[in-house]
Amino acid sequence: MSLVTLREILRDTRQKKYAVPAFNFNGYEDAQGMINSALKMRSPIILMASMGAVKYIGLKQTAGMIRGMAEMVDIPVCLHLDHGTDMALLKEAVVAGFTSVMIDASKENFEKNIETTRKVVDYAGKFGCSVEAELGKIGGREEHIVADSAESALTDPAIVPEFVEKTNVDALAVAVGTAHGFYKSTPKLDFGRLEDIVGLTGCPLVLHGGTGVPEEDFKKCIRIGMSKINVGTEFKAAYAGAIRDAVGNYKKDELDPRTYLKHVKEICEKIADKKIKLFGADGKA
Ligand code: G3H
Ligand code: ZN
């Protein structure tokens, strides 16, 4: 199938009470493992490239690779630029064929966040590309995005309707107690805040910082109305771990790199299987 937009892939999530899995990838093996899992589970899937991943793989190469993977399967696949902070790169991603971009202007004040987000929505709209924005500040570290606990701020439900109306975003990342990276202690999610936000807007909501969130908390978020759940660090650690094991198992007479790299694909597929099931996305493609 051709790549689908974020708006399209999230369309019936709230009504049918599931969340579309959104996974960060860094190369061919992890991305293919994630798609293999989604195909097997009959799940829609959002593949997310960070600005760092795009710079490493190449922007057109990223778009071409994922477009090719999507064309080989009959499930909805969305290609998303995650945490975009560089306007030039955001525009290039839209032109290159990404079907969704995230503008992360969460460090700006409310008015400036609206203004910046609106600019991206207007631009992306001309290409039929969806946009996710962030309101509030999600804590932790995700590559160049860093917000320590003092800086992080939960989303104020009262300002959500105005933000959504003025920006016309397709999805909104909200800060309800999760953080990027591994948690030092179990996160405490503010479900009441999430309920308030869901009650105030029909805009699909996004949970960032999915690595390490307890299973029951995911389920509760989805019951309340979360539409997209991002998981990055868990895949990144598994990818790096598989490489470390491969180096440890290196044999002089086995020179085919695929012998080693296929383990990355397998481990990412396994992690994706679990998340898809947990998010209730299996059978939704
Ligand atoms: O935008 C990416 C996600 O929020 C991933 O968060 O690396 O903590 O799983 P995570
Ligand atoms: Zn994130």
Report on this structure:
The protein is of the alpha/beta class and 285 residues long. The protein is built from 12 helices and 11 strands. The model has no long low-confidence stretch (mean pLDDT 96). The structure holds glyceraldehyde-3-phosphate (G3H) and zinc ion. Zinc ion binds next to loops.
Structural descriptors:
single chain, 285 residues, alpha/beta, three-stranded mixed sheet, 11 strands, 47% helix, globular, binds glyceraldehyde-3-phosphate, binds zinc ion
What would you report as the Rg, rounded to the nearest angstrom? Answer: 18 Å
H-E string: HHEHEHHEHEHEEEHEEHEHEHH
Principal-axis shape: globular
The span between the termini is 12 Å
Strand order of the largest sheet: 1-2-3-4-5-8-10-11
Give the helix/strand layout:
Elements: H1 6-10, H2 13-16, E1 20-24, H3 28-41, E2 45-50, H4 51-57, H5 59-71, E3 77-84, H6 87-96, E4 100-103, H7 110-125, E5 130-135, E6 139-142, E7 145-147, H8 160-167, E8 171-174, E9 179-180, H9 191-200, E10 205-207, H10 215-224, E11 226-231, H11 233-248, H12 257-278
Parallel strand pairs: 1-2, 1-11, 2-3, 3-4, 4-5, 5-8, 6-9, 8-10, 10-11
Antiparallel strand pairs: 6-7
Question: Summary?
Answer:
The protein is α/β, with parallel strands linked by helices.
